[in-house]
Structures are given as C-alpha cells and as structure tokens.
From TrEMBL:
The keyword Ion transport does not apply. Residues 79-166 form the 4'-phosphopantetheinyl transferase N-terminal domain. This is holo-[acyl-carrier-protein] synthase. It comes from Zasmidium cellare ATCC 36951. The lineage of its organism: Eukaryota, Fungi, Dikarya, Ascomycota, Pezizomycotina. Keywords: Transferase. GO terms for molecular function: holo-[acyl-carrier-protein] synthase activity; magnesium ion binding. GO terms for cellular component: cytosol. One of its GO terms (biological process) is lysine biosynthetic process via aminoadipic acid.
Length: 417
C-alpha cells in the first residue's frame, strides 16, 4: 500500500464484498501444507555459487485500465482476475471503490510476474504468504509447503492509480528439486532477514484536501498532526525550510534567493523580495506552502519506504528514532498545471538515514518524481555493495504482463529458451 501512515490516520473503515464469478486453478497454499513435505525427495540440487544480485523496479499505471464501477464487469478485468488466486480475488472484490480494486489487481499481477521470472517457475506455481504476522507481515514467495524462499525479496506500493514494485533477485539459494519443485527453508511464521531487503512507497502530493487544515491551523499545526511519525527536528525542517519554489512563469527560486521568507507558514499572503542578484520578485505564499507540502511528502515517502523493508509500517516502535537528513524534494516531471502523463522528473539519491542518532550505513535510498504530483521512493538494505537501483520501467498490461502470464502459465520461462 502507499502512504500508509497518512491513509491509516484518516482512512474510513469502508468495505463491500462483491460476488465472485470466476474460479481459478491456482492451488490453495494452506490446503497443500499437509502431506506434501513427505513426497519430496531428500536429494536437492546443490546451491549455485553466488553471482551477485540485481534490483528490479516496475511501474504499472492502472488509471485507464478496467473502466467502470465494478471490477468484475469492467472490460478486460475478467482475463486479469483469472490469473490470480481465489484469495487474491476475494481481497480485490472487497474494495468499495473501483480505483482501489484496480490497484489491488495490478499489485497482485506485478508480484506474480516478479516471482515467476525471478524463480524461473510457471505462473500457476507462484506461491505467496506473509512473513511473521499472517495478516500484516510482508508478502513473500513460498514453496508448496508454505516456506519462504531464499534469495528473493520484493515490495509493492500503490497510490492514486499507480502501482510500483521493487524486487531483489539474489541469484543464489534458490533450492530446486530434481523433479522441478522449489524448496523454501523456514516456516512463514518465523521472522527472518534475507541478505537484502527492499521497500518502496508512492505518494501523491495533491490527492487530499490538506489545505483545509492548513488554512485553519497553519502549516505548523498541520505538520504537528504527525508528531507520532516524525522527530522534532524533522517537523521543524518541514515547517520552516524550503528547497525551491516554482513561479507562475516557470522560473525557479532557490532557498538562497527566498531567504528568511522561508519562515512563512500561511497561505494567501503576498510576498515581495529582492534576490541576491538584484531581481525584484513578487509571488503568493501559496507557492511556498505548496513547496513545503512537497517537502513533507518527500519525508513521508522516504520514511515509509524504509519501514517497509521489514514490513512493520505503523507497528514499528522506532518511527521517531528514524530520521532523514539532507532531504531535498525532487523537481516534478512537468511544469505545474501543465501535466503530461508519463513524464519522469528529477531523481535524488543523497539522503542520509539516521537511527537513534547514528547514521545507517547499510542502506541506499532514492526518490524520483513522476508527472506533477507523484514521488516514488525506494530503499534497499543489507549486503548492498555493488547493487544498483535502476530507473523504473513502466510496464504495459497487455504486452508485458498478460502475454507473459499466458505464455508461462504452466511452463517455466526456461522451457522457451
């Protein structure tokens, strides 16, 4: 999920079950648990020598997919729904709004695509469970007896129609049996940390009506709503620091040019200043508040991507001890009010991560803007030397997902090589 901390603070408890009209041939992992373990041969293929690993970053835009008000009757949705399990269909069907159902279906497809490709197994053999907590734990790939599989980690986030996946393929410790089965190594109820963990989060800066609270309480009052998430220093920076503002003519004022006007925390105030180069500028303080909101969501995107490394989210007791320094919001992919769909913006990768006052050295984080209002943050932690986080690849539903799923439904990708 996306921006879960914001959503959890304000989300209405709404749900509605829609009738299931499609059945699939996907196995129920829990029903296979009993009796299958004894059928495995004691002989396994030795683990290959490690040959490094790689990170995958995918983006799926569901905003124009499966139009209508009901996911089951939406054109083309039945074909996609038939490619996920009954449990996933049930989860998708309980979404009250079609927008949420689209993102839930897109998320299910991306996870199955990544697992099938990474483990080189048929689409129908993909097994999913959760690490640790069976309801709130981080999703993971499992073998036929429900054990998480080594050498793979992934995370999915969705917001305002976009779905992002980051995945790690360790290229090692994938235990295959001679009969073609793949073996995990521990019970899904056991907590464990893989060599590399990954997390991702999407935020949409202009999705909610934040201005209503800001107009009533000021930006400082609005930021303090989230004092359970951010440290005092982080909240101070959100209120009184600014990276830049974009004027209505498209020119940019940097923080040095804005000067002490960065202390402004109210909207609808006329500001006049002279830059260090002698340029006279007038603008409305709405532009400052917009820039600070973007900075706030940059912090939020970083923080949630990091805490999703282990899948803790709101359960994490150390939220305020996790701090980010050298934060800079990435410039949008398009000029304000002139949004072009699909345009990528600035990429920033020099943020500093601190925990309990100490810098965290085994983590890499990056944030990139998309279109005018979206930002996507990625986090990787663990044995990350030599790992590079690539740019996101935007996938096409028909050619990149559905075609692959149908081709590899009952056979592994290697069978076609």
């Amino acid at each position: 999920m996306t921006s879960g901390l914001v959503v959890s603070a304000r989300k209405r408890a709404l749900s509605q079950r829609l009738p299931l009209s499609i059945s699939t041939n996907f196995p129920d992992i829990s029903s296979l648990m009993n009796g299958i373990a004894s059928s495995f041969s004691q002989t396994t293929i030795p683990l290959p020598e490690p040959d490094g690993g790689e990170i995958t970053c995918w983006l799926l835009d569901t905003r124009s997919l499966w139009p209508g008000q009901n996911i089951w009757s939406a054109p083309g949705a039945a074909e996609a729904m038939a490619l996920v399990s009954m449990a996933e269909q049930k989860t998708i069907s309980t979404k009250m709004f079609i927008q949420d159902a689209r993102m839930s279906l897109g998320s299910a497809l991306l996870k199955r695509l990544f697992i099938s490709k990474t483990l080189d197994i048929p689409w129908k053999d993909v097994g999913l469970a959760r690490k640790g907590d069976p309801k709130h734990g981080k999703p993971c790939a499992v073998d036929v007896v429900g054990r998480p599989i080594e050498g793979i980690d992934f995370n999915v986030s969705h917001q305002a129609g976009l779905v992002a996946l980051i995945g790690w393929n360790g290229k090692k410790r994938h235990r295959y049996h001679p009969n073609g089965g793949i073996e995990g190594y521990i019970s899904p109820s056991t907590n464990f940390e893989p060599d590399v963990m990954v997390g991702v989060d999407i935020v949409c800066v202009n999705e909610r009506d934040d201005y209503r609270t800001i107009d009533a309480e000021g930006l400082d009052g609005w930021v303090d709503i989230y004092d359970f998430v951010f440290s005092d220093e982080e909240r101070w920076s959100m209120k009184y620091d600014v990276d830049y503002i974009t004027l209505l003519d498209g020119t940019i004022l940097g923080r040095d040019e804005i000067g002490r006007h960065d202390r402004c925390i109210t909207r609808n105030k006329q500001i006049a200043l002279t830059t260090p180069t002698g340029r006279d500028v007038k603008f409305n303080s709405d532009l400052l508040v917009d820039a600070k909101l973007r900075r706030f969501y940059t912090y939020f995107c970083y923080k949630e991507a990091y805490i999703k490394l282990a899948g803790e989210a709101l359960l994490a007791p150390w939220l305020k001890q996790l701090e980010f320094f050298n934060v800079r919001s990435p410039k949008p992919g398009t000029v304000a009010r002139c949004s072009t769909i699909g345009q990528w913006g600035e990429e920033v990768d020099d943020v500093e991560v601190h925990m309990n006052g100490q810098e965290v050295s085994d983590v890499k984080m990056k944030i990139q803007s998309y279109e005018e209002s979206f930002m996507i943050s990625t986090a990787i932690q663990g044995e990350i030397n030599g790992l590079r986080v690539p740019s996101f690849k935007k996938l096409d539903l028909r050619s990149d997902i559905l075609a692959y799923a149908h081709k590899h439904l009952c056979t592994s990708p290697s069978d076609y090589r």
